[in-house]
Write a sequence for this structure.
């Protein structure tokens, strides 16, 4: 049975460093002091801050780090978003040329660009993404058709709809019943449920 990754809510009384105590992204080396200030919360030294805080200073390198959640809608003109919070693209949006770095990313609307998520990337509608996706976990929901022209790099991915691209997973790729993946897969494990399909090469990580 598929258990959808949970998007955690912040505790009401505090907002701790959202990057703290998490392993590095798949294939990424973002956790050394040399990367301070280059990625939001890269060195994970943010102290506890008030629940209303929307930014903080890195306790290691004093870099400015945003903590707020961001909603992108059809009238959004910004193309670059960098936050330790979550990003939601609303259903009426059709945005191109985005560069997003965040904790969790939820696509109700159309969005194209490069996405880096330290949590979950959830795709809830048809997408043609001219760019790459790097996420700890990724979910392509039922009845969605997604094309990613760049690379897809994750730890784990659950495909319930249709996904096309080049995929590397440090852990497991799960193709659910009636779902399909078109393209080459490199992963430690590949699970294809009855009725699911994969068209492409598979290389097992050791």
């Amino acid at each position: 049975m598929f258990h959808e990754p949970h998007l955690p809510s912040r505790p009401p009384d505090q907002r701790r460093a959202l990057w703290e105590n998490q392993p590095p992204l798949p294939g990424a080396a973002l956790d050394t002091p040399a990367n301070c200030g280059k990625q939001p919360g890269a060195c994970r030294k943010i102290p506890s801050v008030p629940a209303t805080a929307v930014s903080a200073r890195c306790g290691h390198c004093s870099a400015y780090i945003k903590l707020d959640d961001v909603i992108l809608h059809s009238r959004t003109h910004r193309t670059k978003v960098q936050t330790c919070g979550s990003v939601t693209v609303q259903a009426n949006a059709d945005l191109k040329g985005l560069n997003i770095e965040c904790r969790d990313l939820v696509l109700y609307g159309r969005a194209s660009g490069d996405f880096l998520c330290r949590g979950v990337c959830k795709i809830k509608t048809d997408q043609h993404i001219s760019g790459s996706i790097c996420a700890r976990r990724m979910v392509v929901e039922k009845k969605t058709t997604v094309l990613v022209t760049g690379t897809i790099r994750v730890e784990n991915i659950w495909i319930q709809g249709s996904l096309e691209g080049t995929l590397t997973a440090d852990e497991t790729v799960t193709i659910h019943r009636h779902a399909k993946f078109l393209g080459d897969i490199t992963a430690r494990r590949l699970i294809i449920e009855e009725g699911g399909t994969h068209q492409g090469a598979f290389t097992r990580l050791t």
